[in-house]
Design brief:
This protein has about 280 residues and is mainly beta. The protein has a single domain, classed as Porin. The protein has two helices and 16 strands.
Length: about 280
């Protein structure tokens, strides 16, 4: 009897945990690389555990814990609260610029995106107009837990969809005076998606570094063809002129085979070919 009572008391304390909807997702990717004759194989896996519930007054609450096989690459762990005020996410979340950038980052390995700092707070504001999304972010100098690697900043960005086109703009500024800005347009129709993106990082000394990204993907059944060019310039100096191409073949069930290649006109050592497979669930 004492054991039954003890079990009942214990259940009373842990019962709220069972009220949450728990999800587990992840991915595992393997690839073979040939970098100018030097060959490498790589395995990269991620695992995410999430849970969500609703409070008595109607607030939605969710959390996510994300783990990366590399350890140092953990990121995305957060706590989120949503209601009539929108959704506020705390932890290792995207900054305002990061939330709307990387429209051409289609690759498993060959593309890297254009940048954008993480934040400790991302606020997705409630809808104020159809097809318009507005974001506000704030960061701190450092954080404990969650892998947040951003800077002490405030930022704002928006995305607006009009038919097949989506435009975005964002800006954030650190306490030290450095800035990040993003402007982009993306058009999708009949399996073709094309995007143009300009990312500008400005130092506290007002030195601009511009990264221009132009890319496109075309889906034809289970096969997707992709291309991207990223050019990085500061003043009259071009430091990178990276072109990536790829073919992805979906086998269904979350399994994708891929072949990708990148080449930098400013760096002869960057030419790399990737062959691999990915499984996501």
């Amino acid at each position: 009897m004492k054991k039954i009572i003890a079990a009942a008391v214990a259940s009373a304390f842990i019962a709220p945990a069972f009220a949450a909807d728990v999800t587990v997702s992840g991915s595992q990717e393997w690839n073979y690389q040939d970098n100018n004759g030097t060959t490498t194989s790589e395995l990269d896996g991620t695992l995410a555990v999430g849970a969500s519930t609703e409070t008595a007054n109607g607030l939605g609450v969710s959390m996510a814990i994300k783990l990366d096989e590399a350890g140092s690459a953990d990121g995305g762990t957060n706590l989120a609260i949503s209601g009539e005020f929108g959704t506020m996410s705390f932890g290792d979340v995207s900054g305002a610029v990061d939330q709307v950038d990387d429209i051409n980052d289609w690759g498993y390995e060959a593309t890297t995106g254009v940048g954008g700092d993480d934040a400790m707070l991302l606020w997705a504001l409630p809808s104020i107009a159809p097809n318009l999304s507005v974001y506000f972010s704030a960061g701190t100098d450092s954080s404990e837990g969650g892998g947040q690697d951003g800077t002490n900043h405030t930022g704002v960005s928006f995305e607006y969809a009009a038919g097949p086109a989506t435009i975005a703009f964002g800006q954030q500024e650190t306490d030290g005076g450095a800035e990040e800005r993003i402007a982009s347009i993306q058009v999708s129709m009949q399996g073709l998606t094309a995007g143009y993106e300009l990312f500008t990082a400005t130092t506290a000394a007002s030195v601009d570094t511009d990264t221009t990204s132009v890319g496109a993907t075309y889906a034809m059944g289970d096969v997707t063809f992709a291309i991207e060019n990223n050019t990085t310039e500061s003043g009259s100096t071009t430091s990178a002129d990276l072109t990536a191409i790829g073919v992805h073949y979906s086998l269904g069930g979350g399994v994708t085979l891929f072949a990708e290649q990148k080449d930098d006109a400013k760096d002869s050592t960057a030419e790399t070919t990737y062959l691999g497979a990915s499984f996501a669930f």
